[in-house]
């Protein structure tokens, strides 16, 4: 009888141990992903990438963002709730860095790695962000300058003091790091191309407009090529549209050769001022102006497909989400991590349906 009871106790102990082991085995590391938004198609692509990485690396994630990018306090509450679940790492695209300073400090004290993604956490305290998964906005906008330069090079060559030319860069604001990088990347690349690949030099170029986009070493005294950095009065659609209309009114008088819209909001402003882009081709004054956009959206895709725009730059939101979770997982595992450029591509009416582009240009 005693032997039977002993055997039963051993079997029960073994069963409990196996069940406990299985329970531990099934418990996956938890990574919190807090985004700037969730409803926009861009963020849905980021979410798809994050979920794919969660599957590949065997982790559980939550992906959440506020209803709009002005809902800073809602994002802060989401971050607080996520931290209360004891994540092994956090991926964060902060709407406002100053609003999450306490959370960054708490994460640092608790040894929780924080990975920035998309625009990350600009000017975060040193050591609080382990790495970033984001587009190299400077290089991506430089690609737009290269594509535009190919088309307008001969007209730039023909510029004189008596008949100068202008290239316009539309920027939503003068504070967001990603937008500043785009404006500066386009500006610097265009200056370099003109200086190196035409008979003109930096002495023939002047960068004008919003001072936030004029660097100490930017050429400002030239009188043959003007690169105008425009920022609407606010981020509101009406102001973006008004700024676009004011610029379009000077296309002929200022001899504007090209327009670069550095984000979806400025693209929408330009489209609103041109009957969804149709006026860019139907109006003789605009038909030779080369326009390049940034990101996607149904209206912008339509403008590219109809060749109202030469093309646009698309980020890779899927890779932004994937790499954010991958970096978070590696940081949790104690592996070294560093910033990752998630890439960008130029699309036009010819390649926008190609397999490597189509999935990146959301509606």
Automatic annotation (TrEMBL):
InterPro entries assigned to the protein according to its UniProt record, in alphabetical order: Peripla_BP_I, SBP_2_dom
Signal peptide positions on this chain: 1-21
Pfam family, one: Peripla_BP_4
Keyword Signal belongs to the record: yes
Span of domain Periplasmic binding protein: 31-335
Protein name: LacI family transcriptional regulator
Alphabetized UniProt keyword annotations: Signal
Species assigned in the record: Sphaerochaeta halotolerans
Sample GO molecular function, one term: carbohydrate binding
């Amino acid at each position: 009888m005693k032997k039977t009871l002993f055997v039963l106790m051993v079997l029960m102990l073994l069963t409990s141990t196996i069940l406990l082991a299985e329970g531990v085995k099934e418990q996956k590391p938890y990574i919190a992903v807090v985004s700037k938004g969730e409803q926009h198609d861009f963020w849905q692509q980021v979410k798809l990438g994050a979920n794919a990485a969660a599957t590949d690396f065997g982790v559980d994630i939550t992906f959440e963002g506020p209803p709009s990018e002005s809902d800073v306090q809602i994002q802060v509450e989401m971050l607080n709730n996520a931290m209360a679940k004891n994540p092994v790492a956090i991926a964060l695209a902060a709407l406002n860095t100053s609003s999450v300073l306490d959370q960054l400090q708490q994460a640092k004290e608790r040894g929780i790695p924080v990975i920035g993604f998309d625009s990350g956490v600009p000017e975060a305290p040193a050591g609080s962000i382990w790495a970033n998964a984001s587009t190299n906005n400077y290089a991506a906008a430089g690609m737009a300058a290269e594509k535009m330069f190919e088309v307008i090079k001969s007209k730039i060559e023909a510029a004189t003091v008596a008949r100068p030319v202008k290239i316009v860069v539309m920027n939503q604001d003068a504070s967001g790091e990603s937008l500043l990088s785009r404006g500066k990347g386009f500006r610097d690349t265009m200056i370099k191309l003109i200086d190196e690949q035409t008979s003109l030099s930096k002495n023939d170029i002047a960068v004008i407009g919003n001072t936030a986009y004029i660097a100490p070493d930017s050429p400002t005294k030239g009188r043959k090529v003007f690169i105008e950095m425009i920022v609407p009065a606010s981020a509101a659609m009406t102001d973006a549209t008004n700024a676009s209309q004011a610029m379009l009114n000077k296309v002929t008088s200022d001899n504007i050769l090209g327009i670069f819209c550095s984000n979806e909001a400025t693209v929408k402003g330009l489209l609103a001022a041109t009957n969804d882009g149709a006026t860019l081709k139907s109006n003789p004054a605009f038909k030779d102006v080369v326009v390049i956009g940034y990101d996607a959206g149904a209206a912008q895709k339509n403008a590219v497909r109809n060749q109202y725009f030469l093309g646009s730059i698309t980020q890779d939101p899927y890779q932004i989400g994937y790499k954010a979770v991958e970096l978070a997982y590696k940081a949790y595992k104690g592996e070294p991590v560093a910033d990752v450029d998630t890439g960008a591509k130029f699309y036009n009416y010819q390649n926008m349906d190609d397999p490597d582009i189509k999935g990146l240009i959301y509606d």
